[in-house]
Amino acid sequence: MSAQPDKKTTIAYWILTVLFLLPMAGSAFGYLSRSDAMVESFTHLGYPIYFMLGLGVAKLLGVVGILQPVSTRIKEWAYAGFGFTLVAASISHGVSGDGPAGIIPPLVMLGFVGASYTLWTRKRRTQQTFHDTTASALPSKTSQVGVRKEA
Questions:
Q1: Rg (Cα) of the chain, in Å, rounded?
Q2: pTM for this one?
Q3: Tens of pLDDT along the chain (151 residues)?
């Protein structure tokens, strides 16, 4: 029988996940509140200010999507959304002439997203294997139909 996810994997997953979710939530609140720094950044990158609302909402939904324990599909879409956003941010900073100081931070954050996703899938696979083997070890109701007990 396979074991449940080890403690190290779970701890590493949560550390990496928090390291990217906190900045994502922080930037989402900055977008939604139209902070001066965010407005200046969006203007510098050439984006319309109204785009901040959509991106802020999307980032908050992504944070909730990754933290929710129910739907793997929602969680995977949230990880993908953050991946697209961070690649686009890196490209936008590069095209705007920000150089490595603007290009590298979103790529570093993308590394945290990728590592978190990898650990999450590893945990999920281990948990699924554990639940499958535990369930198969228990007698099922259908296997007992028509079975006679010998005296």
A1: 22
A2: 0.80
A3: 445 668 899 999 999 999 999 999 999 999 999 999 999 999 999 999 999 999 999 999 999 999 999 899 999 999 999 999 999 999 999 999 999 999 999 999 999 999 999 999 998 888 766 555 555 555 555 545 555 555 5
The pair phi, psi for residue 139, each rounded to 5°, is -70, 135
Contact between 123 and 10 under an 8 Å Cβ cutoff? The reply is yes
Between the alpha carbon of residue 9 and those of residues 33, 102, 112, the distances in Å are 36, 31, 14
The set of long-range contacts for 90-94, using a CB threshold of 8 Å and a minimum separation of 24, is 92/45, 92/46, 92/47, 93/45
CA distance 45 to 131: 48
